[in-house]
Structure formats: C-alpha cells, structure tokens
Amino acid sequence: MSVTARADTDVPARSVAPRRSHRPATRRPLTGMLFVAPTAVIVAALFLVPLGILVYMSLTDWPLLGSPTPTGLDNYRQLGDDDQFIGAITFTLIYTAITTVVLFAVAFVLVAISNSPRPGSRFYRTAFFLPYVVGTAAASSMWWVDAHDQLGVFNQILHAVGLADQPVGMLASPGKALITVIALVVWKFIGFQVIVLLVGLQSIPREYYEAALVDGASTWQRLRFITVPGLKPTLALLTVLSVTGSLLAFDQFFVLTHGGPDNSTVTVVLALYNKAFQSFRLGNAAAEAVVLLVALIILNVVQLRLLRSREKE
Amino acid sequence: MLSDDGKKVDINNDAFRQIFGLYKQLTDEKLVASSDKTQDGSTWPNNFLAGKVGMLPLGSPIVGALQQQKIFQWGVTPLMSPDGSKTSTFIGGDVAGISVNSKHKAQAWDFLKWTLEDNAQVEIIAKNGDLPARTDLSGNKYTAADPRTKLIADGLKNGVTPFALPFGDLFNNPNGPWVETIRGAIYGPDLNKALAAGQDKIQKGLDSAG
Question: B190-209: per-residue pLDDT in tens?
C-alpha cells in the first residue's frame, strides 16, 4: 500500500515541478527546509533506515539469534532454487488476477443496486461497507470458524437449503480453499470498492446524461460514452489498489489456510514470513522482500504509465 | 525416525508404512472426524473432549483437561508398535533454549534446573494435574493417586524425543515437508511414494542445516 501512496503523490508533483521550482524555493530555502524537516525525519526513521537495514540484511546470513555474517549475493542466488518462493509467486499472480476480476464484477452489480434512487439503497450501501471495518485477521478468524465442516454456519446453510448432506470441508482441497479465501476477500473489501465507485459515478456531471438523453442516446451508449470514460480515474485507482493489495496478501492466508492444504495457498508474503520466522533465515527472507519491493515498484510505475497515457487520449 | 545426532531421517520403512496404512484405512472408512482433514492442531483434542470420538492418540498434555471433564469415563493404554513388541508415547514438543549472546546464561540455566527439581515437578506441575517430566518422579502422591496418570507417567520412559537442528522448520512448520508427507500418505493416492518423497525432502532439509 505504501508504494502506491508514494507513487500517487509523485505524479502530480513531477508534472508541476518545472513551472514553480525556481522562485519560492530559492527565496527562503531555510524556512522551507524547516517545514519539511519533521516529515523528512519521519520518512527517514520509518522508511529509509529500515529499508537500508533490510538491504544489508539481504546480503548477510542473519539468524534470529546469534550474529550475522556477510555472504554477498548468496541469498539472491538461492532464491532461484527455492521451490516454495517460485510456487508462491505463481500462486500470488493467479490469486491477484482472480481476485481483481471478481472484485470488480461483484462491485459493478452492487453499485447498480445501491446507486438507484429507490428507498433502501442507503441501507444497502451501509450493509456492503460494514465488513470493511473488520480487521482482515479478525475476519479471517471468523471465517475459519464459519467454514468449519461441522460447526460452521456455511455448512449449516448448505444443509438447511438441501445442497449438501455430508459435511463439506471448505478448506479441504486446494480449489475449495482458494474459493473460500476469495469469497472472504470479496465479502471483506467489496464495500470499499463500491463506495469509491459510487463517489466516482456521482462526480460525473448530471448534465452529460441529460444532454445525451435529449440527443436520443441509448442506455448502452450512455454507459459506453459517458459513464465508462468518466469512471476511468476511479477504475485506475481501484485497479492499482486491488492489484497491490492482492500481491501483498498475507493475513487471510496466514489465519484461514496456513498456506494449506498441501502448501497450495502460500503467497509471496507468507513464504517470506515462513522463511524468516519458521526457518529463521532472515537473510533469505530479506532478499525475498527486496525482490518483492522492486517488483512492486516496477509494476506500479508500469500501471501508472499505462493509466496516464490513457488519460491523455 | 531421526538418528541420535539429528543428521539422518528414516521414515521410508515398514513401521511407518504400517502406521500410516492404519491411519489411511481409518480415514478411508470414515472412522475419523471429517474435520481432521483441515485440522491445524488448534482444535485437535476437542472432538474427544466433547465425547464425540472414542479414541485419541495423545500423551500427557491432555490429562489436565480430561480430569476436569465430567461427561464420560476415560482410560489409557500405551500406543503399540506395529509388531506389538514395544510401546510408545508422545513426549515433548516444547523446547527451551539459552541464546549464545545471552547476558544472563547462569540465571537462565538456574531457572531451567529449577523447573526440573523435585519440588517444582511435584508441588507445582503434578499438583496442578499435569504430569512430571521426570520419569523417576512418576510415583509422587498426586500422579500416583490415579492409576491412569501413573500409567502415562511411567510410559514416558518408552518414548523418544527426536532431535534435529531444523526440527521446527521441517516437522512443526505447517508448510514444511513432514506435514506434507503425512497428508500425502493419508489422503494421497500412493502411501509408498509419499513416504519416499518425504524421506528425500526431510533428509535434504537436514543436510542443508549448518
């Protein structure tokens, strides 16, 4: 998340820079620096210093107890042979793709429901948003109980409706575990997606639609030529947030599946955590973290480039 | 299953094939709770404590809880080896260590020694319904008061605590090779292959630990 936030603020800053950079900055540089100092100190202490330690850590053999020994680029070389890390990258990419698509698909339906002026749409908005205020780890613990094949409420519903007569292990096979986690993520994050889309929708001026109606535009044409272009910045923001969030997924897998069954749901961050706190190879884990950070920076730069060039059109 | 120096593992053998064969048969015939397939250890003894399953292979850790429940009568028996010649039990799992750079090695060592002294073993651990870790104290008045706890405490001497430097990483790790081997053997299509693959992976893990 922090990566996206920084990338976001970078963009406007860079585009205005050439116009304003000379006058105010040179006139009273000291005062300006003083104003920036607190933020600079916080960024340095909470981001740059830990980042430096992380990079140094990735170049050493760093056990949890005991003292580190420098090993050069060994940790990075070992990444290529690490089956769990490679498998985690594949799984995380698949998970990210599915989650992003499903989140958008469900969000569009819910937006359609809650954007209508009918009475009760406020109730829907609140209902969709409620799960979002539950912490991911807490939500995962709830789902862990709910998904239990004998005590869980999901099984009771399935039995009551008559869809199942045997206990269904919601986390018992790789496929079912993935579906359960995606369902949890949709339930948990859909509210945010819906609210942001609603705000985006309502920021499109009414007049466009009225003018289009006067010109005899069909529903489809209004959707295609007014709603979609008007929502583009919102969709871009949500895509970046959803992709970055999914690539960094950890809590739901750590609590709900523990990476199981049979290591089928190990994400990159979970693999990293295991390396650090199960295997106590902090150097290897730091190398994985550096690789992940670089990958995320590249991905966000590419995403923002693509979205910016589309906006220019 | 592990050599004394913790450098060699041996799970690809007849004893393991028979034990896992039995577990696989119990699972295939649906004699175990269906939730076992996703069991992560956190609710392991619950079905037994609730009186829903009849047998639970476990050692001393459950004794305190069993003595408090009033739903059913319970008894204990040692776990037999496949050929019936020896018995086994669950011991340990918990590890205490003193780090090399500790500034209080002597105090830490003192504390560990104290936990194993007669007084702590009997008047704190046994008195509170748990079993003493020292087999020579199995006859203490609290443990010996119940023939069942006496039997468990005496049985400890037939158990072996396997040791290996990366034990947690290879055996306790939910994403590690041991859990993968057990699941492959019990739920997978081919028990022999699962044990052979597990043997390789665990041995590789032992070899790569410094």
Answer: 999 999 999 999 999 999 87
